[in-house]
Amino acid sequence: METSIKNLSELEKFDLYEAIHSVFEKGLETKEVVYSPGAQEPLIEDPVSKMTFQLKIVDGLGKRPYNRPVQPGETAQVTEEKVNEVKEKSPFMHPEPELTVIGDLIGDYRLLLNKFPNTEDHFLLVTKKFVKQDTLLEPIELQLMYAILKNLNNTEELKRQGTKFFAFFNSGPESGYSQYHKHIQFMKLPEHFPIYQSRLTSDTNFFLPRENNVNKHPLVNKNASFKHGILKLKEEFKDAEEQETILAMLYMFLVRRVLNVFKENGYSLDKLSYNFLMMDDWMMVVPRRHARYEDVWQNSLGYMGLFNAKNEQVRQKMLDLGFSKILQECGFPIEEQEEKISYDEYSY
Fold it and tell me: Within 10 A of 151 (CB to CB), how many other CB atoms are there?
């Protein structure tokens, strides 16, 4: 029988990790999930960017279908006819029951396993109706992301494994998505994997960002090669209304910054693209100008330090190009005084 969750309170109490992991294990047995763990890859420390990277081969990447109205870099218009073609092919409209974790999530959403996962327990939050991937995140979608991350990252099993889940949303034609049907992804970090976002936010208190106050600007890893902004989340919200308001305010502040980056660099807003990443204590945005560099495809994962190649040839190319160079070319180069840059909050 289909699992149904009616509201956020039910989701907070639901044994989510057990549900995800049991569906994942069954999917492996029945071969509905296309995944092989591969060798344990060593972590690579970059002394310049102060980022930790992992590079691994993921066999399923070469089998993953692409369903988009236009390809990255194309100037063709996204017509209604093309959107309808994509809608007809969407794997999320009629998902496989064997990949379904929650079939009805507050009426409008589902939780599904990724059929071609990067890691074990890699899953998706998808809209039941067809919604374009290039639309903004709704306030309820931010709340769902937060509730899911809080639920998962407080489980004893994940603490025992020394890992946490993070969420990511690839938005815009150059953001690196493969499916045009709106979806948010959730993945586990490698065990004991250090991330610069947590290092930055652990040393600061929560604040509401302001463009006219440099002390209220988003946090920045000054050693990184790419433009980005990170905001710490409140540890506790007094009620659901405050949670909805603050999450939406922080997200829209970061999106406005993306709009301004595109405007100042002379890029058309028709190509507006960004990666949005989130854990239960921070959120982050990375403006994107290209989906790939030298034929190396990149979505949100590289900006977490996670690089995945479909074969040995691509893996070697990533090493030859350099992680920081790939991230810089797919994003926008960071500026010397990045943390002090103020944008017009009301004009873009």
Answer: 18
Give yes or no for a contact between 173 and 273, defined as CB atoms under 8 angstroms apart: yes
* Residues of the chain where predicted confidence (pLDDT) is lower than 50: none
Q: List beta partners, residue 43.
A: 54
Helices (H), ranges, 120-229: 139-153, 156-161, 196-201
Q: How far is CA 16 from each of CA 23, 148, 154, 175, rounded to the nearest angstrom? A: 11, 8, 11, 28
Rounded to a whole number of angstroms, the CA Rg of the chain reads 19
pLDDT per position as a tens digit, 73-93: 777 678 889 999 999 999 999
Q: Per the structure block, which two tokens stand in for 321? A: 């190009």
pLDDT in the model for residue 37 = 79
Q: Is there a contact between 143 and 244 (Cβ–Cβ < 8 Å)?
A: yes
290 catalytically annotated:
no
C-alpha closest to that of 99 among 91, 107, 109: 91
Nearest to 105 by CA among 140, 155, 138: 140
Domain boundaries, the chain: 4-66+79-340
Distance of CA 43 to the CA centre of its chain: 21
pLDDT on residue 298: 96
What burial letters (b/e) apply to 15-54, b meaning 16+ CB within 10 Å? Answer: ebbeebbebbeebbeeebbbbeeeeeeeeeebeebebbbb
Q: Which of 183, 217, 228, 290 is catalytic?
A: 183
Report which of 163, 135, 209, 174 is spatially closest to residue 287, judged by C-alpha positions. 174
The span from the CA of 138 to the CA of 131, in Å, is 11
Q: In terms of pTM, does the model score above 0.90?
A: yes
Using the CB atoms, write b or e for 246-269: b if 16+ within 10 Å: bbbebbebbbbbbbbbbbeeebee
Right CATH for 4-66+79-340 from 3.30.70.890, 3.30.428.70, 3.40.50.300, 3.40.50.720: 3.30.428.70
Q: pLDDT tens digits, residue range 237-276? A: 999 999 999 999 999 999 999 999 999 999 999 899 999 9
